[in-house]
Write a structure and sequence with these properties.
The structure holds 2 protein chains of 2 kinds.
Chain A: E1 29-35, H1 39-47, E2 55-61, E3 68-72, E4 75-79, H2 81-84, E5 87-92
Antiparallel strand pairs in A: 1-2, 1-5, 2-3, 3-4
Chain B: H1 2-6, E1 18-24, H2 30-38, E2 42-46, E3 53-60, E4 66-71, H3 83-92, E5 104-110, H4 114-125, E6 130-136, H5 138-143, H6 150-157, E7 161-163, H7 172-180, E8 183-184, H8 194-207, H9 212-222, H10 228-234, H11 237-252, H12 257-276, H13 280-285, H14 294-299, H15 305-313, H16 318-356, H17 364-381, H18 384-400, H19 402-415, H20 424-429, H21 434-439, H22 447-456, H23 466-476, H24 482-510, E9 519-522, H25 530-564, H26 575-581, H27 583-595, H28 602-610, H29 617-625, H30 634-644, H31 656-668, H32 673-683, H33 687-714
Parallel strand pairs in B: 1-4, 1-5, 5-6, 6-7
Antiparallel strand pairs in B: 2-3, 3-4, 6-8
Classes of the chains: A alpha+beta, B alpha/beta.
């Protein structure tokens, strides 16, 4: 399969339709398409700004691999992999 | 609700004293503004029925009226199930009978994080109360190249926007003025999908009213607001069926009302932020504006201080090294720095007790004053140095923004056993003492993970267990060499950690509720303000003294009475004889059949009962029983007395196996009334301390039973 983004170190190789926030490599950007998950988590994620196609950038992963820090709407927040996978993303093929 | 509707007219509020609610996102600098507004005229209490702090203060407005300011817990949204945010929502909506309905809402907005902060503003606008926006941290926004215009923002929102710098008290007078002349913001026209607007009309007609109030309530019903007033309405059959049908029709169209509502809010926010952020026009020309997040793309173009610091603090090697260094400093401070202060306090109180009772004749009254009352006060005050030091560090870590980073670094380890990244510091502190550790769990926002952290924190071997470990290891394993003894000591700590990890994991597996989400904001780094840090130290220490302190004091007086009464008729009787005769001694003897299978005799039983005052009291109780005194030099005498003790049939009372069983008992058992008192205060109910007492002692009993029985079998005894 072909790599979607050309950020060095990003190993995401799937198609844009299947991309989830936890699959993006560090330094990659994407636009939010949908938020899944149960009601309360979904509401929280939407309220924190994961909506309307907001641009999200993966800032870093914790030294132990989880959680992941993201930047969106001008601020940073971190999510565990288990939560980040509920956010569907269209990766942007652009280096930072 | 009637007050709310009266104020929909948009007129300035009535004269007289005002109730002002101070709302804002966490990390928006709300507390600094609260402090600047109210100065020292503050009160900290608890909202009845919940363990959420209620901070109120008073200030005088320029027109001579007085205002009561309620500092609400930081909140991201008015729709929430977390206790803190729920309290904020209930106060703002006037649903709490214990708090007056606010006349004015002041919302603190972090200019450097405008969009997410405006989400709360957009919800507050819907409340229809007079509102003022305090625009904070404009300097940070400017450093990031974003220039937020208060004038344009005020025009867009329709309410006064006052730029403030909380810690420099800039803009506070203007904020007071704005509070006095606050107005209701005009309702922005959310661009909800057309079918949803129709459904709003349908639901509001089922409610019996098309007015603004009816539509707002219909919206809250459709998006599933869990607030009490909405649920009450939703329980009416007519309303419930209208909502159900609306949901069904919308689902067929692929519309989720909750999502549509949040998206409509954010569309409005994006438009407002676009206009209010001045430099954005030029940036748009540079083609640097991404969808939905225009500001961020610009900000990420340059490296801010926060980013440069994070490159080190969050680094795989350097970050962990810095983390280890900070945690070591914190631990050393509460473990060793606090120790001489605690010793000093204890001996000062002891000396004071001696001084007061110097002229008193020996007898029950003198014993009550020295061993009951003064010792009880000492038992409370002795925790103050550790609590004050820990909260000093916590306040610095929290205000600087490092606490979130520490949680980020550690979360993976703790998440495996169902805890939170923020559980690390409470658990680490519990190695010094569980009391400050349990109090420090307040930094954990999610209530379930906080409770789990509280429940497992006492497994960490606290400094009060150390004298017991030292006595028993020294008395029965002296011949094994220093390495073995050090290894034993280390294994005791490991047993505690394993027990904590295991029970935390078990509790998280038994927790049937929905998994709590880990959503952790990473605030920008800030220099902590000395005034704010000392305020935190003061309020947390005072809260401990006033609430948990009274319980600890009463329990320690009761415990004293249990070792003092009833008296032996012969006044010349040895202290050991008196102790045996007392209630505690009798409990020890009654307990003997129960603790016999663990290898303990009644003397150890008395020791365990008295250890409830503090675990190290076990050592001095043994000193009394074996008539060895209780000073440090006497410990060697005590150890040999213990080794020499025999049952009537000549078997030794103490064997290395008994010592191991007792050591493990001290690791696992809950036998600290002060911890129970603090758990009572932090969880707001006796349910959890009782649960803790049962499961920890149950676990200790089973494990020690296993150790002693298997051990006796193997050694042929």
């Amino acid at each position: 399969m072909q790599k979607v983004c050309d950020v060095p170190g990003c190993n995401y190789c799937g198609t844009p339709e299947t991309c989830r926030l936890n699959q993006l490599g560090v330094g990659c950007c994407g636009a939010v398409v949908a938020v899944e998950g149960d009601g309360e988590l979904r509401r929280r994620l939407l309220e924190m700004g994961f909506c309307n196609g907001a641009a999200v950038e993966v800032v870093r992963r914790a030294p132990l691999g989880d959680p992941i820090e993201f930047r969106l709407r001008g601020y940073c927040l971190s999510l565990r992999e288990e939560q980040a996978r509920h956010v569907r993303i269209v990766p942007e093929a652009q280096a930072k | 609700m009637s007050v709310c509707c009266d104020q929909h007219s948009g007129k300035p509020i009535a004269s007289g004293d005002l109730v002002v609610a101070l709302a804002g996102n966490p990390n928006s600098g709300k507390t600094t503004i609260f402090n600047a507004l109210t100065g020292l005229r503050q009160r900290v209490a608890n909202y009845p029925g919940v363990t959420v702090e209620k901070k109120t203060g008073r200030c005088r407005l320029p027109d001579g009226r007085r205002a009561t300011i309620i500092d609400l817990p930081g909140t991201y949204s008015l729709i929430s199930r977390s206790p803190d945010e729920q309290v904020a929502m209930e106060v703002l909506r006037g649903l709490r009978p214990d708090t007056p309905v606010p006349d004015v809402v002041v919302v603190v907005v972090d200019a450097s994080n405008l969009q997410r902060n405006l989400y709360l503003v957009s919800q507050l606008v819907e409340l229809g109360r007079p509102m003022v926006v305090a625009l904070n941290m404009m300097d940070i926004a400017e450093r990031r190249g974003v220039n937020v215009s208060p004038e344009i923002l005020a025009e867009q929102l329709g309410v006064p926007v006052v730029p403030v710098v909380g810690h420099k008290r800039k803009g506070i007078d203007r904020l007071r003025q704005a509070i006095a002349s606050a107005r209701v913001a005009p309702m922005p026209g959310w661009q909800l999908p057309a079918p949803m607007q129709e459904e709003l009309l349908t639901v509001s007609s089922a409610l019996g009213g098309h007015g603004a109030g009816g539509l707002a309530m219909a919206e809250r019903l459709l998006i599933g607001d869990p607030a009490e007033d909405v649920r009450r309405l939703a329980s009416r059959p007519a309303v419930a069926s209208a909502v159900r049908w609306s949901h069904q029709r919308l689902r067929q169209l692929g519309i989720d009302p909750m999502q549509a509502d949040i998206e409509a809010h954010y569309r409005w926010i994006e438009a407002v932020a676009d206009r209010a952020c001045m430099s954005l026009d030029e940036l748009a020309a540079m083609g640097n504006v991404g969808p939905g997040g225009g500001i961020l793309d610009y900000a990420s173009g340059r490296t801010s201080i926060t980013e440069r610091l994070d490159a080190v603090f969050m680094h795989g090697i350097w970050g962990l090294a810095v983390f280890a260094a900070i945690m070591a400093t914190l631990f050393v401070s509460i473990f060793w720095l606090a120790d001489p202060i605690m010793g000093g306090i204890e001996s000062a109180i002891g000396a004071l007790g001696q001084f007061v009772t110097a002229r008193m004749p020996d007898g029950p009254l003198k014993a009550l004053v020295t061993d009951g009352i003064f010792a009880g006060v000492g038992a409370v005050v002795v925790f103050v140095p550790q609590i004050a030091l820990l909260f000093f560090f916590l306040a610095i870590l929290e205000d600087s923004g490092y606490l979130a980073r520490a949680a980020f670094l550690m979360d993976r380890l703790l998440a495996r056993v169902g805890l939170h990244g923020k559980s690390f510091i409470p658990l680490l502190s519990s190695f010094a003492c569980a009391i400050p550790g349990i109090m420090a769990t307040r930094t954990i926002e999610s209530p379930r993970e906080r409770l789990r952290t509280i429940l497992v924190a006492p497994f960490m071997s606290c400094s009060a267990r150390l004298p017991v470990y030292t006595l028993l290891i020294g008395a029965f394993f002296a011949s094994y060499g220093a390495m073995v003894r050090a290894g034993m000591m280390l294994s005791l700590y490991l047993v505690g950690i394993l027990a904590a990890a295991g029970t935390a994991w078990l509790f998280s597996r038994r927790d049937r509720g929905p998994a709590s989400a880990f959503i952790l904001e990473m605030p920008s780094y800030k220099v902590p303000q000395a005034g704010q840090v000392f305020r935190v130290v003061w309020t947390s220490t005072w809260a401990f003294l006033a609430k948990a302190g009274t319980i600890i004091f009463c329990l320690s007086v009761i415990l004293w009475a249990m070792t003092y009464y009833p008296r032996v008729p012969d006044p010349q009787a040895a202290p050991a004889e008196q102790l045996r005769h007392s209630i505690a001694g009798r409990i020890g003897q009654v307990l003997e059949p129960v603790i016999r299978p663990l290898g303990y005799d009644w003397k150890m039983g008395v020791g365990l009962v008295s250890a409830f005052a503090a675990r190290e009291v076990f050592v001095s109780t043994m000193g009394i029983i074996y008539s060895a005194g209780d000073t440090d030099e006497d410990v060697t005498t005590l150890a040999s007395a213990m080794r020499a003790d025999q049952y009537p049939d000549g078997r030794p009372v103490w064997t290395p196996l008994v010592a191991v069983s007792l050591l493990v008992w001290f690791v696992l058992a809950m036998q600290c009334m002060s911890t129970l008192a603090v758990v009572r205060r932090e969880t707001g109910t006796w349910r959890w301390p009782v649960f803790m007492l049962l499961y920890m002692n149950g676990l200790a009993y089973v494990v020690c039973l296993g150790i002693y029985q298997v051990g006796s079998f193997l050694t042929g005894g």
